[in-house]
Every structure is written in C-alpha cells, then in structure tokens.
Amino acid sequence: MKASSILNPLRKFLFANKTADGFLSKLTSKYPGSLLFIKLLPGNNLYDQPALRHCKKWGINFDISDYQNWLIYFNSSADSSFGVLKFLQEGNIVFDIGGNIGQTALRMAEIVGDKGKVYTFEPYPSNFNKLKTNLLLNPQLQNITAENVALGESKAELESMLIVLQIQALTGF
Fold it and tell me: Which of 50, 135, 165, 171 has the most CB atoms at less than 10 Å from its CB?
C-alpha cells in the first residue's frame, strides 16, 4: 500500500481548508524547500473545485484546485516564471507572453513602475478572465495592458484542445 493512499485523506481532512493551507503557505514562504512542510501540503487534487484563496503576498486570487495556481500559492520553486524578474528595471517595457492568471505580469508591473509598461497576452478565455480579475484586485498598478490573444509567427485561427484534454482528465475517456 502506498503511503500517499494513507496520507492523502489525512492531508485533506487536516490541511485542505482556508485556515490550515493559509498557515502552510506562510510556512513554505518562510522556509522554502522544507521537506516537512512540503510533505504536509495537500495536493491540488484534494481540493474541491473551485478552491479560491486570496494571497496577500501577491495580491492575487488563486483557485488552488488548479495545479499551476497551487504551485504559486504554496511558493513552489517549480514556478520558473519569476526568474525573469531579476532582469527588469524601473522604466522597462516588457512583454509577458502566456500571461496565465497574471502572477508574473503583476510582479513585473511593480518592478517597472509608473515609468514602465507591461503588455501581457493570454489566449485561453478562462485564464484571461482570471487575469482580468487579478488586475482589478490591484488598481494601484495602472501600467498593465492585457490582451486575450495568442502570439505567433503569422495571423491564423487555431482550434484549442484545452477543453477536450480537461474532459479527458476528468472522465478518463
């Protein structure tokens, strides 16, 4: 019997709630890479959908039943998008291609300041809606322009497989 089959119901019961996971998020921020805290985290699959949380650190709402949002909320080093931030300076003009829910664009906007500008592009409507919501939660950042488009080599219309893949993941078909 796998340890996770025993631990997951316990993790869900003890930690998959706003009070406990908020505390764990603070601990993983204060002690990054701590195996103890990482082992306690309930996986994103243990949350009911949607599992909305507000992260004061980033000023963003997260649905932590979504894996990428879960990674950000629990301060995972697996979110590599923040690596670009060290190259930014006040007054830069930057492009965030694949804006997702806006986590990187918001941080970029803080760094480049009022003299800079951030253009973020997100093609998926559900992610774009979350991005727009997160921008509204941060009215102090007026230097972000968000576009619900994909960028590519040439002008074209493409059919997305995102919905099909999500249905397959949920149903197994």
Answer: 135
